[in-house]
Amino acid sequence: VTERWRITGTACLLLALAMLTGVDALAQNTSPLRLALRPAAEAKLRWTGLVAPVEGDPDSASNMPAFGVFGIFISAARGVAADQEQQSAARKRQMQADEVLAPLRGAIETIDADSLWLATIDQLARARSTTALLGADIPGTRLAATDAAPHPQAWVVSLVPRFMLTARLDNLIVDAVIELQAPGQAEAQASKLAVRVISAPGRAGDAWKAADGKALKAEAATLLAHAVEIALWQAQNTQQVPQPATAEPPQRTHRYPLADELRAERGQLLREGCARLLIRTLRKALLSVPRAGASCEAPYRLSEISNAPTAPSSSTSPRS
Amino acid sequence: MLVVMALAGCAGRREALQPVAWSPDGMRADRSRIGVVMRSLPERETSFPGARCLMCRPLAAASNAALTAHVATLGGTEELAELRSEVVALLRKRGLDVVDITEPLTGEGAPPQARDEAAVALAELTPDIVALRDRHALSRLMVLEFDTLGVHRPYIHYAPASAPYAVVEGRAYVLDLATRKLHWNHRMHATLMAEGEWEEAPDFPGLSNAYFQVIEKVKDRVKQILGRNP
Predict the structure, then answer these.
(1) Do residue B209 and residue A61 have CB atoms under 8 angstroms apart?
(2) Which of A7, A213, B147, B175 is buried deepest, with most CB atoms within 10 A?
(3) How far apart are CA A143 and CA A136, in angstroms?
């Protein structure tokens, strides 16, 4: 009997330890999070116009006979020419799209990478409602150079952003390649993620120039902070709750407002909130888009996003 | 001479394919009972327009084998079926007596002359349409049919002329089941290239996304027409 009690006692002790470990793991989720932001090696930020979707060109197909063996040479030559034409057309489309930046050049020039990182850290601190972020004044929290040593408990976040504006300046978009290195993780094991965030509607045209471009800078920092939030959420989620393939949300077509139209994106709805949808695209990038017709106090707050892992069937329809 | 006649025939057919504008007033006035049905969907396919010579086509097919295999797996049935229910809701909102016919039309499409000559009386109604008319006591039938779902890659004989693009093609029409005339004829057609890189075998995410985007584009256009005020 004594032996049985001893075994039972040991089992209870092990169980309690396991529970404590579990509680600790949960507590980590809400404990203060340290971030070390490692800016891109390139100090200059990239700004472009968003190129509109391109339709196919059925007229590029040949209607002429192939002329036997000579047809091989003729078609090869025409194929090369067509390839060059398309590259040229793509460059032209980008140049035309970039024209949208002209009225904002002054505002864009005022946004340097360094001050944008600081603004991003500030936004991150404000956005995180459940976890506090240590400020830029803590040594090792903001890395001045890529070879600087991070704080031992900090997540190291490396960013390469590209900002885009839609044709009528309705939306600002950030495409960010984000590398995350968990505390104690080797640099080689860092996870890399592409995140696109599309701004909430409501600001357009000259509104970006307000306060000497500060509106544009503030929104850029907000989008970047949201992108980092998403990447962190994804990294922590992957680390703590590995999802079996069967629990994956289904692929659906999601609609969202962009400029004056309703765009479509195929992907998995990872989270949804009052103002936003978070979609994993077919390219495995994360896309945060505004919901159509949503009017919410905090259009970028990640904490509003529910924890339901599966997508509701209404996700294809915009909220009206 | 034969070639000239054939070309003239083709040109004539294209000219005859006239759209018929949407006008729900007549239907509302004569209290038509209108059924909305979707024809069963075709296979998802790749096509290589321009690769027409004896050796060009197999060469194009072989060099795009991975793309063809992937396109065959593309879905979209659920999204396209949504169009029918959304159209039903729109028509009901406009005060029309609508029957939502959930089972697809599986028979052959309307006779070729009816498909090519809009607003012209059909030679005869196909048996599946007659069956629907009798079963649901319909006076008109709206048919949503898709002919092409997939990806096209234009060729200049042996060489690709452009990157592939997603294509959705079809037709939406309203048939008066008494007079056998077309009361609405709308060509559904949309194409879209992949955003950025397209050569992403085996899953081709960029092109797959474009495919689902053109489905939405086609649906949006139909809903826009049916939803707008006359």
Answers:
(1) no
(2) B175
(3) 9
How many residue pairs from chains A and B have C-beta atoms closer than 8 A?
120
Among chain A residues, CA nearest to B168 = A56
d(CA B104, CA B16): 28
Q: Which of B105, B82, B100 is nearest to B218 (CA)?
A: B82
Q: Is A79 on the interface with B (CB under 8 A)?
A: yes
Long-range (24+ apart) CB contacts under 8 A made by A122-130 are A122/A221, A123/A221, A123/A222, A123/A224, A123/A225, A123/A226, A124/A35, A124/A225, A124/A228, A124/A229, A127/A225, A127/A226, A127/A229, A127/A300, A127/A301, A127/A302, A128/A33, A128/A229, A128/A303, A129/A301, A129/A303, A130/A29, A130/A30, A130/A303
For A236-288, write each residue's pLDDT tens digit.
877 665 556 557 889 999 999 998 899 999 999 998 888 899 999 999 999 99
- Report d(CA A48, CA A97) in Å as an integer: 7
pLDDT digits (tens, 9 = 90+) for B3-45: 444 443 333 333 344 667 777 777 777 778 999 999 999 999 9
Residues of B in contact with A48 (CB under 8 A): none
Q: Is A56 on the interface with B (CB under 8 A)?
A: yes
Instruction: Give the C-alpha separation, B28 to A118, whole Å.
Output: 63
Q: Is B124 an interface residue toward A (CB < 8 Å)?
A: no
- Which residues of chain B are within 8 Å of residue A76 when distances are taken between CB atoms? 158-159
Q: How far apart are the C-alpha atoms of A218 and B72, rounded to whole Å?
A: 46
- Asked if B163's CB is within 8 angstroms of A266's CB, the reply is no
Interface contact flag, B192 A79, Cβ < 8 Å: no
B203, β-bridge pairs: none
